[in-house]
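Data availability (excerpt). The following record was deposited with the supplementary files.
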Amino acid sequence: MALGKKATQSSQYESHGPALTVDGSLDTNMHSAPSDTPRWWQVDLGISHYLTHTVIYNAKEGKASLVECSVYYDCW
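Predicted structure:
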């Protein structure tokens, strides 16, 4: 659903930009600047979708993540 969609993030570290999160590869990843707190990432799916579950791969860091969804980008 998110493959190739427009993604943005709070900051970018080296060449690890947000497009790498929606490229379909598990070998690429985004990375925010180490000093960036809180870190966030978002993807614009283009239209509203009914989601029954979400899978986010974050194998590099192995840390828990909070997942929030918003239709209007300001209602978290």
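Summary of structural features: The chain has no helices and two strands.
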